[in-house]
Design brief:
Oligomer: single chain
Structural class: alpha+beta
Number of domains: 1
Helix content: 25-40%
Distance between the termini: 62 Å
Number of strands: 5
Radius of gyration: 18 Å
Shape: globular
């Protein structure tokens, strides 16, 4: 990477981290509620490497429903010239570690894993009980 790209990347990350999101959505294990408090927008979370081994979290809308404009607005890129293309779409949101809502999204993603493990354990116990 050239020094100008590194500098531009660092500046973008600093701007993004300093962003103030006044109407942050509520991230749940099975979806997102926007600041209006309307019904849950079903979603699941996945993790993946972005650049330089940074781990990003992807939020995927489920059930053929797109995320609300209020939710998408919280993840809109500050600059379109930065390397990240496809930062958010109607059905998928890409959350970088330097985004101000990253820790909340990561907590919801972890809660999702815990909840899924509980569901699988309950199903396994039920099957074992029926088999006995």
């Amino acid at each position: 990477m050239t020094s100008s790209i590194i500098k531009k990347t660092a500046e973008y990350k600093a701007k993004e981290a300093a962003r103030v999101i006044e109407q942050a959505p509520l991230f749940c294990w099975n979806g997102i509620k926007d600041a209006t408090g309307k019904k849950l927008q079903p979603a699941y979370y996945s993790e993946g490497a972005v650049t330089d081994s940074e781990k990003a979290i992807f939020i995927h809308a489920t059930g053929g429903i797109s995320f609300s404009p209020q939710v998408l607005n919280c993840f809109k890129p500050l600059e379109t010239s930065y390397l990240i293309g496809g930062y958010s779409r109607c059905d998928r949101i890409h959350v970088h570690p330097f985004h101000p809502l990253y820790s909340q999204v990561k907590a919801a993603a972890k809660a999702s894993i815990v909840k899924e493990e509980e569901i699988f354990a309950a199903r396994r116990a039920k099957r074992e009980k029926l088999a006995a």
